[in-house]
Amino acid sequence: MSVVKVGLLGLGTVGGGVVKTIRSKQEKLSARLGKRIEIVKALVRDSRKQRAVQVEPSLLTTRFADVMESDVDIVVEVMGGVEPTYDYVRSLIEKGCHVVTANKELLAKRGAELVELANRHGVHLAYEASVAGGIPILGVLRQFLRTNDITKVCGILNGTTNFILSQMEEAQLPYDDVLKRAQELGYAEADPSSDVEGWDALYKLYILAQLVFGESLPLSAIERQGIVEVSQSHIRLAKELGYRIKLLAQAHQGNGGLHLSVRPTLVPLEHPLARIQDAYNAVQVEGSLVGDLLFTGKGAGELPTASAVVEDLAYLLTQPFAPHPAWRERPEAVPSSRLSSGLDFCCLAGTAAGVTPEQVLLFLERAGVSVRRMTVQYDSGSVLRVGLLAAGLQEEHVGLLERDFGLETRLYPVLEAADDQDADGGSAGL
Ligand code: NAP
Ligand code: HSE
Prior knowledge:
Elements: E1 2-9, H1 13-24, H2 26-33, E2 35-43, E3 60-61, H3 64-68, E4 74-77, H4 85-94, E5 98-101, H5 104-121, E6 125-126, H6 137-144, E7 150-156, H7 159-170, H8 175-184, H9 193-196, H10 199-213, E8 223-224, H11 232-240, E9 243-254, E10 257-268, E11 280-287, E12 291-298, H12 302-318, E13 343-351, H13 357-366, E14 370-379, E15 383-391, H14 395-405, E16 408-413
Parallel strand pairs: 1-2, 1-4, 2-3, 4-5, 5-6, 8-10
Antiparallel strand pairs: 7-9, 7-11, 9-10, 11-12, 13-15, 13-16, 14-15
NADP nicotinamide-adenine-dinucleotide phosphate (NAP) binds at residues 10-15, 43-46, 49, 78-80, 84, 102-104, 129, 133, 186-187, 189-190, 300-301, 305.
């Protein structure tokens, strides 16, 4: 039986999962592929480090040149980052190696060049693991949704932040503790600010847009807000009003052009995306023929991600090379077109002695803001917290609420629900 030589760039959470999966599924893979997969080199930063997976010391190297010289057919890039990763991947493609990568940052920042380079050298560039962990969404979009027109994609694309928001709500754990736990579980990026500030979801949305719309926006033109400012009180107030806060990534192509955003968004509790908890991800796609589709599964972690990597590996070993559609970026930023129902969720906090909910309502009414629903809580009697769903809120109102009423103010968009009466002014709830 012939042997396929595989090199690994990185042997951390995902790399370790890939080694374990290839070992545990070797017989099945050999039977299906008619080839044995052999890992011949693994590039790491520190070859003496304790690892979750044991490998022959001779496999490990800290020199990229050793990977280049080891005659590998395929390289699995699971080291992350853009530099020096881009240079390594580029050199390997130029040498004729197929590449499987889980690195969404690399793809979002240098994907267009790598796709072009891989096409020119006739090698596969496979990246299923880069979006939504173990959910095989990219393969589905590429293979089975080519005829449908898709105008909208909406999803939960980051496992770490979904885990944090779920645990803050369910176990009422503080943000820092849950983030630490997400890191221990191998969900978070090496620099977790990429997760919590929304960059990771933004990179994934960029990749999805390339596959769905054949183009994306420059990263700087994608609206981005992370979950750093989402507090337990915001989560509580939202729930009182029948919503759950999710970090939603949304892409929409309409007459106004392409619009992409990543923002903490209120999702009605009965909406399927509100039920996606912990490190699970979900991608909702609306096809012109097939209708609404929802894909869900584990979005982060060792084995779900390794599953996507190894499936990619198996796929490319059975498929002849076919050029990848070029990646394009729309040069101009398209002005923001709202994706929410037009409602905003506004969270206010201040000292109970300083202001009453009635004063806030009166101010908003006079400013022409339509408040549809409101909930009020008093923390330990002295802190007033107000959550309201309102239409017509502007930045200037937020400024006045902060300046004149001394209220800390946070705004979140609200996802449109098919039967949302509030969106067209149905129920006042006040
Ligand atoms: P990780 O645990 O931090 O592992 C990174 C590995 O790369 C480590 O083995 C590290 O070496 C090695 N490495 C990093 N920089 C290097 C350099 N300059 N030279 C040589 N080796 C280097 O990261 P991970 O969680 O496995 O993630 C890897 C990639 O997969 C990232 O692109 C990430 O975004 C993506 N991804 C991760 C997940 C997940 O759930 N974790 C899911 C989907 C995609 P040492 O071990 O010696 O430090
Ligand atoms: N840090 C990423 C997440 C890993 O939490 O979703 C999966 O891409």
